[in-house]
Amino acid sequence: LATSQSGQAFERCSDILTMGGPALFLRHTSANSWDNAFINFDQSGWFAAPNYVVMKLWRENYAPLRLQLTGEQGPLNSVATKSSDGTNLFYKVVNPTSEPVPVELTVKGSQPVASTAMKLVTADSLNTRNTLEAPNRIKPVQIKINSDGQSVHFTLAPYSAGVVSINRKQAIR
């Protein structure tokens, strides 16, 4: 998940770092076993590396306006953003530890939380990989999270990266 943490750093520092790219984008499966490319392939197909899976999830949930996070974040690496109209909030988070971490997000403002969703990328171990035989072993999965209208609660799995999407009934001003 190191690359996914780098992706968050790019987003948090977007006013300074306006563009970034992978050092190794494509890798043929006959290359050495170091799995450091986004896309791995051979003549019959391809599979996405875990870093590609998370970076794609980040991009699918991009919002242009960063939000200030307050409170103790503990071991988590996170960034919060909102859409231009303020109706959608995104909390991108990485748990780089071997322990689950409980999370409570309190959304300030007069409009209550209308709906929430979470997509999580995790694996049984740090050595788990996608392969040509199992190209979807590591992928985002929908996770149920709870909201009381102002706060969102969930537990972040060990060695995971996720995006919490929060929809507000009315635009945040």
Describe this entry's structure for a reader.
It is a single chain. The protein has 173 residues and is mainly β. It has two helices and twelve strands; from the N terminus they run H-E-E-E-H-E-E-E-E-E-E-E-E-E. It has helices at residues 2-12, 50-60, and strands spanning 26-28, 39-42, 45-48, 65-67, 77-82, 88-95, 101-106, 113-122, 141-143, 146-147, 151-156, 160-168. The model has no long low-confidence stretch (mean pLDDT 84).
Provide a compact summary of the structure:
The protein has two helices and twelve strands, in the order αβββαβββββββββ. The chain has helices spanning 2-12, 50-60, and strands at residues 26-28, 39-42, 45-48, 65-67, 77-82, 88-95, 101-106, 113-122, 141-143, 146-147, 151-156, 160-168.
